[in-house]
Amino acid sequence: MMQLDDYATDPLHPNQNPITDDDDNAAIESDSSLDEEESPLVLALDDLESRLVASLNEFKSHPGRASDPRSQTIHDELASILRPVVEVTSHLGPSTGRALANGYPHLLGVEMCVDEIYQRTVSELALPVILESAQSDVIPAKRAASLATFHTLYNEWRKG
Predict the structure, then answer these.
(1) Tell me: the pLDDT tens digits for 107-148?
(2) Which are the contacts of 137, defined by CB distance < 8 A and separation ≥ 6?
(3) C-alpha span between 93 and 87 (Å, rounded)
(4) Cβ neighbours of residue 29 closer than 8 Å, sequence gap 6 or more
(5) pTM value?
(6) What is the pLDDT of residues 57-101, one digit of tens each?
């Protein structure tokens, strides 16, 4: 019969000491994931990415016909759908990186913040989706809008 204070050796007891766990492959729990999730840079990146994804999803799911041909052309409509992509990649992303670096100078550097935001929002998200659409979308208006977005991005980035 097991004694009340012998719970450390009982494998079914919920208060078992993790040090005496027999599983050699068990991961040691740490608070690093908590710190990473609460990082201001990660939170800002998640917000910027969600804005980009919403705009790019709307663009990809657009039927390619103007919803109201009397008010605007299909090209104007697609350009307005892609405008948040231009805003986030050209203005909001870099300014967010600079603001985070200024707000948390002991944690984040300006170049590190701006580079990380550029990498995740522009290099890994916006440009590949726009390039894929420019190359292989079956709707000519969407291909044209994608190509026009590259020109707009270039002009916005050149302004600085």
Answers:
(1) 888 999 999 999 999 999 999 999 999 999 999 999 999 999
(2) 143, 146
(3) 8
(4) none
(5) 0.74
(6) 999 999 999 998 898 999 999 999 999 999 999 999 999 999 999
What confidence score (pLDDT) does residue 88 get? 96
Per-residue b/e over 51-66, b at no fewer than 16 CB within 10 Å?
bbeebbeebeebeeeb
Q: How far is it, in rounded angstroms, from Cα 157 to Cα 89?
A: 9
If phi over 0 gives left and psi between -120 and 50 gives alpha, with beta otherwise, what is residue 99? Answer: alpha
Q: CA-CA distances (angstroms) from residue 96 to 111, 148, 154?
A: 12, 25, 20
Q: What is the separation of C-alpha 105 from the centre of its chain, rounded to a whole number of angstroms?
A: 23
